[in-house]
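ok here's the first one, seq then struct tokens
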Amino acid sequence: MKKLFSCSVLILFMMGCASSQPLQTVDKVDLEKYRGQWYEIASYPARFQKGCRCTTAEYELVPGKNYMLVVNRCVKFKGSSSKIASIRGRAYPVLNSENTKLKVQFFWPFRGNYQIIGLAGDYSWALVGTPSRKYLWVLSRESFMTTDTYDEILKIVKNRGYSTSRIQKTPQNCDTPE
């Protein structure tokens, strides 16, 4: 019994260490290039996104402010009818992070730690995660992503300490429920 307890504690400790490792971000993010609409290609399932399809995030620079406006939208179906669900928030770049870390606030006073951990040189796709590795999003400027690009991103996901088995692709068919 003692041996089983010791092994369990060791395994839990090792799991805690893996997720507490600092999350490696990209070197720098140009917010002017990052702004605009992003399509969610895949993500870790999140309670607050349950039932969402055609999910997008739109970032807008606000002149003279230390944050960007962010609007997340998705289509939710109930039977054969659909509705657009959306939420507005603010994304605050963390000082001295070269804009790679954002504190995102949808409900005052709570702010989530979002970090840009992968980014195409032409800003055609981005990979965003949280230091806890509980949340992860694969974003693209287009609602479609090639298999080669997606596979390249999955390598980054794994390299950053995330499990690729938890990722689910986001349906992009917005006209019908399934």
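and now the second one, same deal
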Amino acid sequence: MTFHFDCVFYYVSDLERSLRFYRDVLGFKPVSRDYVARFEIDGVLFELVPAPHHQTLQGNGNARLCLAVDNMDRALDELQGLGVHTNKAETKEGALGFFKDPDGNEICLWQSA
């Protein structure tokens, strides 16, 4: 058996709301839309998938997406300016920041040292 990468996806409770967040707040460009919304981020397919009706997300999210940034402080400031609640960056061998999408999916920002 051989495996090949397909995509990373988040279940979301409201596809339209999530599409607006990723497109309008984070600036991701949609590449296609049918039952799911698809974006390409640096050659990686990222999808928003409606959560099955029996599944409750309860604001805890269901995965983690990590995005590289050149300037952590500026990235967090810009997100806060767009109304996104962020944490204060943690620093060690670089800087790590966190924020959540409308369904509570945690998104990481990473800046190399």
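notes on #2: DSSP finds two helices and eight strands in the chain. Strands lie at 8-12, 30-33, 37-41, 44-50, 64-68, 90-91, 94-100, 106-112.
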